[in-house]
Design goal:
This protein is 55% helix and 17% strand. It is α+β, with helices and mostly antiparallel strands. It folds into four domains: 226 residues, no CATH class; 192 residues, no CATH class; 203 residues, no CATH class; 139 residues, no CATH class. The strands form two sheets. Strands 2-3-8-5-7-6 form a six-stranded mixed β-barrel. Strands 12-14-19-16-18-17 form a six-stranded mixed beta barrel. The longest helix is centred in the N-terminal third of the chain and has 40 residues. It is found in: Cell membrane. It holds the Pfam family MacB_PCD. Keywords: Cell membrane, Membrane, Transmembrane, Transmembrane helix.
Length: 845
């Protein structure tokens, strides 16, 4: 083929059908931009954590235990650590801190450290070097904590039984190990000062950590793999420096995994638009292809022309998508509000660039390939005779099926790669990719309903004319409903889940719940505490014993500590069901928010019976009739599972996954947890102040404040999800425009025929407005009904949430969808009102 002919063809095709080129451009660029933006940001976070991990941890690795290191553990550390290693010990725990003068109190995360820590990075303080010069009777705290306590440098605070002088503000510090940062503002004291606080008896809620600096030539990941089992047997968990803040990393990973899958679903809708656009364009070009073939053009040459056109548009769209992806990375830090994420500079990584080529160029070509082959096999005489309704051959059908299966498989692989879990990627991909099929089922259901209403003459003739088009098999308009309905499903599901999460957080309580938690109550403090509570108007007060323990045996078979998941980022409830720490309790009665799902609740005379939360029993792989043995501070306590129960975790009572009846557990060393409801903020403040002043060891948590902190996190996550949902919605709207473009010939015929038989402009306007309204209505009904159904399943069987439907928000979405559909519909049809009927008939013949 001559290069000049190729240039002439491409220049003419790219600009003669600007609507086709623009739809193809938008479909690809939005999909590529959303996927690449999230993928690049995830890669940049990973690179930043790997680069700064040592500075963030302050060490090469850490050894952590829920109890004080035993002599055996200390010997193991000395014998197994690489030669030349340096050790810095620390203790971390939550506690209340109160001012010495005014008695103001607040929750703080206490770090008792040795001055040799950190080995990497530094504590930035005000005044400078306050950390390195810290003395045993002194304390450092975050500036925000000082502001909350209304305290100044040089004043004194009480931490437990210790009186400490505030000598500096913490501006920046190395991160925590194996926890979610930000549970409470940090305070720092010297390790040698911790015994003076009298708080170290709090048992399993304390974390003992040794930070390790190793010689530079040690492969620590290999060392961890080789020694993990023998250390975990002695309750020592090894954390590599890349696992710093593993809780935070898990949260970020799960959030961005979900966003990445939403972005992939936007790309999937874009791929449907690409397919529809190319198919429509090739059908329009059928006559032209036939003429070229009659003039002697080879099918291969035609293939090159069409592929070149798609390649150029895809390449331009990919470049635009990369720009969109870059801008998404600029926006994300403002959505998250994270100081750390704000330090990550937007960049398109090499891997992300390769992704953009795959998504933006290769996949559109794969989508187009069977269509191009079909066009290349066009018989000139049939095309010239304009026989457009011929059936596809079996070979072409198989090619189309193979292409669809291949694209689907590729989507599953992409989703699995993004989430680093084939199972997770497969499940999400099945849900998202199967969404159009599920929506299609609802579409058919509404179609049958419309048909029934029409037959019963319950629909006017004008609306009947429109409704019959919706259920017609050959109606291309159903693609609009399917695309828009799929997008509305994701949008409505997001709104309902958000409202349910708000209810869980307590921000929109249907019924008031306890809003004060009291932790670490000693047995000899209960009577005095009861006398304090009598001074206040308290409702819904609950008290429960709590005993720290570890699962030792299941049905007499010892639990292998060495089975603990090695990677801290993979330690969730499911993975650590048998190896995690437990808080056990015992009581005679169930709460009204609990329900036995299997077995029977015990009577008051029962001894050493066990109730397990039903979902957690699956993680434990246990059932009614089996036995569990727990190690309670060196003593084994065994009980028989007599029932499984469901728990409403949002009710703010002292709930536990494992509960005993009375028996051996009663004699174990324990402390108590109490929850209660105090309506007045002023009364809650006075209550907290009096309890902490009398019992400095008791931690008082005002959940109203916790709710506000949770809402801020929820707001940021919601904003990010809304960003991705916006891309999905935009992709769906483009799909609507694409389907309008694909059915324009059919619409021209209908428009011209209605005008020829005497339809006025007013009638035609009303007719197509009815069509637009019905599209919007059906799309919303399909998306909202399916989202409510899916939400109920998710809340009842997965998330354990109470479903709350935001009727006002859904009403706004409904009105917006109708208006947008009408505007887009009229935008696509507006030109037809200005074209004479004769000209329309000539264009469609």
């Amino acid at each position: 083929m001559k290069l000049g002919l190729l240039k002439f063809y491409l220049r003419r095709e790219l600009f003669s059908r600007i609507q086709y080129s623009l739809l193809l451009l938008l479909s690809i660029s939005l999909g590529v931009g959303s996927v690449i933006g999230i993928h690049s940001y995830k890669e940049n976070i990973k690179i930043a954590i790997q680069t700064e991990a040592k500075n963030m941890m302050g060490a090469d690795m850490a050894l952590q235990s829920p109890q004080e290191f035993t002599p055996v553990a200390e010997e193991l550390i000395q014998n197994k650590l690489p030669a030349g290693s340096e050790i810095s010990s620390s203790i971390q725990f939550l506690s209340m801190i109160l001012t010495d003068s005014s008695g103001e109190s607040a929750l703080t995360y206490v770090k008792a450290l040795e001055n040799s820590y950190p080995f990497y990075g530094e504590y930035l303080t005000e005044p400078k070097d306050s950390y390195r010069n810290l003395q045993p009777n002194q304390i450092l705290m975050e500036k925000t904590l000082g502001e909350n306590l209304k305290i100044h440098l040089g004043e004194y605070v009480r931490l437990g039984e210790a009186r400490l002088k505030v000598v500096g503000w913490i501006l920046k510090e190395p991160g925590a190990v194996g926890s979610f940062v930000g549970a409470a503002p940090t305070t720092v004291i010297l390790l040698k000062s911790v015994s003076a606080t009298g708080l170290i008896e709090r048992g399993s809620r304390i974390r003992y950590t040794n930070f390790i600096k190793t010689p530079p030539n040690i492969d620590l990941l290999t060392w961890k793999e080789n020694h993990f089992e023998e250390f975990i047997k002695n309750d020592l968990t090894i954390y590599h420096h890349t696992e710093v803040n593993s809780g935070s990393q898990q949260f970020l990973k799960n959030t961005f995994d979900y966003m990445a899958l939403l972005a992939l679903s936007a790309f999937f809708l874009g791929a449907v638009s690409v397919y529809t656009s190319i198919r429509t364009r090739l059908r329009e070009k059928k006559n032209e292809i036939a003429v070229l073939m009659c003039l002697g053009a080879e099918p291969g040459a035609i293939l090159v022309l069409i592929i070149s056109e798609i390649f150029i548009v895809s390449s331009i769209a990919t470049c635009i998508g990369l720009l969109i992806g870059y801008e998404i990375q600029v926006w994300l830090p403002s959505f998250t509000g994270s100081e750390f994420l704000g330090t990550i500079k937007p960049a398109i990584t090499p891997i992300s660039f390769l992704w953009s080529l795959l998504l933006g160029i290769i996949i559109p070509l794969l989508v187009a390939f069977p269509l191009v082959v079909e066009a290349g096999r066009t018989k000139p005489l049939l095309a010239l005779k304009e026989i457009e309704a011929r059936e596809n051959s079996n070979q072409e059908r198989w090619m189309m099926l193979f292409s669809a299966v291949f694209i689907y498989f590729l989507f599953v692989v992409l989703a699995a790669y993004e989430t680093e879990s084939f199972l997770k990627g497969f499940v999400f991909a099945v849900v998202l990719v199967s969404l159009p099929l599920l929506v299609f089922g609802l579409y058919k259901l509404f179609g049958f309903l419309l048909l029934w209403l029409t037959k019963k003459s319950l629909v006017s003739k004008e609306w009947s004319l429109v409704s019959k088009k919706m259920i017609r098999k050959s109606g291309a308009i159903r693609m609009s409903i399917l695309g828009l309905g799929s997008a509305l499903f994701i949008l409505c599901l997001s709104l309902v889940l958000q409202e349910s999460l708000m209810e869980l957080s307590g921000a929109r309580e249907i019924e008031r719940r306890p809003n004060i938690f009291l932790l670490d109550i000693k047995s000899d403090q209960r009577d005095t505490l009861a006398s304090i509570t009598k001074k206040f108007e308290i409702k819904k007060q609950y008290l429960a014993p709590i005993i720290g323990a570890r699962l030792a045996k299941v049905n007499g078979e010892p639990v292998r500590k060495e089975d603990t998941v090695r990677n801290a980022m993979e330690r969730n409830w499911r993975a650590t069901a048998r190896t995690r720490e437990y808080f056990l309790s015992y009581r005679d009665e169930m709460y009204e928010t609990e329900k036995v799902s299997e077995g029977n609740w015990w009577n008051e005379s029962a001894k050493d019976e066990i109730s397990v939360e039903k979902e957690f029993s699956g993680y434990l792989n246990t059932k009614v009739g089996e036995t569990l043995t727990f190690n309670v501070q060196g003593i084994e306590v065994t009980g028989k599972i007599t029932n499984l129960r469901s728990v409403n975790w949002s009710d703010m009572k002292p709930n536990f996954v494992v509960i005993f009846s009375r028996g051996l557990l009663e004699r174990a060393p324990k402390f108590y947890i109490s929850t209660l409801l105090i309506e007045s903020p002023e009364e809650r403040y006075k209550f907290q102040k009096e309890v902490v002043s009398v019992f400095p060891n008791i931690t008082v948590i005002d959940t109203e404040k916790t709710i506000q902190a949770f809402l801020k996190i929820l707001e940021k996550v919601t904003q990010m999800i809304q960003l991705m949902t916006g891309f999905i919605f935009a992709s769906a709207l483009i799909l609507v425009l694409t389907t309008l473009y694909s059915s324009q010939n059919e619409r021209k015929k209908e428009f011209s025929l209605l005008r020829v038989i005497g339809g006025s402009s007013s009638y035609l306007m009303k007719h197509f407005l009815r069509e637009a309204i019905l599209i919007g209505f059906l799309s919303f009904m399909i998306g909202s009904v399916y989202s409510l159904f899916a939400n109920e399943i998710l809340n009842r069987y997965v998330l354990e949430l109470t479903s709350v439907v935001p009727y006002l928000k859904l009403s706004i979405v409904f009105i917006s969808v109708i208006l947008l559909t009408v505007i887009l519909y009229l935008f696509g049809l507006g030109n037809l009102f200005r074209v004479p009927s004769k000209q329309l008939l000539k264009e469609i013949k």
